[in-house]
Design a protein that fits this description.
With about 300 residues, this protein is mainly α. It folds into 3 domains: about 110 residues, Orthogonal Bundle (Endonuclease Iii, domain 2), CATH 1.10.1670; about 120 residues, Endonuclease III, domain 1 (Orthogonal Bundle), CATH 1.10.340.30; about 55 residues, Arc Repressor Mutant, subunit A, CATH 1.10.10. Helix content is about 55%, strand content about 5%. Strand 2 and strand 3 form a beta hairpin. It is globular, with a radius of gyration of 21 Å. The protein binds iron/sulfur cluster (SF4). The site of iron/sulfur cluster has 14 residues, from helix 9 and helix 12. Its cofactor is [4Fe-4S] cluster.
Length: about 300
């Protein structure tokens, strides 16, 4: 589609009709939870969604918003409470990162999430992507939010490649910026609309081109759907990995009401060397606190 504004219209119209009603996407005018700080709700959702699908995030997000409706509320809790409430979302260091960000927001910004990209990015654990997403979705700041779905849609639609490169390139960021509509509000909606198109239609393994609003303009389809010839994204296995063992150890600590003796951790995995290595890494990451007499707990 050579006409960029026609492309904008097509995808924005599709989004208006097809978007999922996800709680963290509600506009300020339609925000139904007056006690919940909306920018905080957006920030928490963005961190949770980075490596976990919507269906698993949504219930945990609701529970976090019920318990910690503001950054100050989470900052007043123990980091271990954040890890416990993280449940089984995976990559639990994200819970500690959110706690650290909440603490910085409470201590350095009077409990108010900064409404500019520079200060957002200076928060602990908040990288370029999360800052751009919170800037766009919470504050309407015009910035390109380039997640894995956006990268895939733009690779196919504009570049004509089935998959983007394994990691984000400067050219991709430039392209995403060039594609942004001029208006701030349209730009923010465009980001989430392209994400949604990638999540619902232009899926990684099975793109559903027959129901895609930009099928006629898609460079990859017009080129005859050439097979991907670049490096493949590595699929991380789970069974038997340290990630699985760490998850099992944390599960025991999350379910306990107090410190746990080593004997209770020893039964979760038969390989003692791997188990000890994983426990040591959890301690090093700050997710587990060792106590006297070989007892362990979530960080207080
Ligand atoms: S036509 Fe197919 S490959 Fe192209 S953007 Fe749409 S879903 Fe993706």
């Amino acid at each position: 589609m050579s006409d960029l504004s026609a492309l904008h219209d097509t995808i924005l119209t599709w989004y208006a009709a097809q978007a999922r009603d996800l709680p963290w996407r509600r506009s300020p005018e339609a925000w139904p939870w007056p006690e919940v700080d909306r920018p905080w709700a957006v920030l928490v959702s963005e961190v949770m969604l980075q490596q976990t699908p919507v269906v698993r995030v949504e219930p945990v997000w609701h529970e976090w918003m019920r318990r910690w409706p503001t950054p100050a509320a989470l900052a007043a809790a123990a980091p271990g409470d954040a890890v416990r409430e993280w449940g089984r979302l995976g990559y639990p260091r994200r819970a500690l990162r959110l706690h650290a960000a909440a603490t910085a927001i409470a201590q350095e910004h009077g409990g108010v999430i900064p409404a500019n990209l520079e200060d957002l990015q200076a928060l602990p654990g908040i990288g370029t992507y999360t800052a751009a997403a919170v800037g766009a979705f919470a504050f309407g700041i015009r910035s390109a939010v380039v997640d894995v779905n956006v990268r895939r849609v733009e690779a196919r639609l504009v570049t004509g490649a089935e998959h983007p490169a394994p990691s984000l390139s400067a050219a991709e960021t430039r392209l995403a910026e060039e594609l942004l509509p001029a208006g701030d509000r349209e730009a923010a909606t465009w980001n989430v609309a392209v994400m949604e198109l990638g999540a619902l239609v232009c899926k990684a393994k099975t793109p559903q081109c027959e129901r895609c609003p930009v099928l006629d303009a898609c460079a990859w389809v017009l080129a005859g759907r050439p097979a991907h010839d670049g490096p493949r994204k590595r699929v991380q296995k789970w069974a038997g990995t340290d990630r699985q063992v760490r998850g099992k150890l944390l599960h025991v600590l999350r379910d306990a009401s107090g410190p746990v003796p080593r004997s209770k951790l020893d039964v979760v995995w038969p390989d003692a060397a791997q188990r000890d290595r994983c426990l040591a890494s959890l301690i090093e990451d700050g997710l587990v606190e060792p106590l006297a007499r070989e007892r362990f707990r979530l960080p207080a």
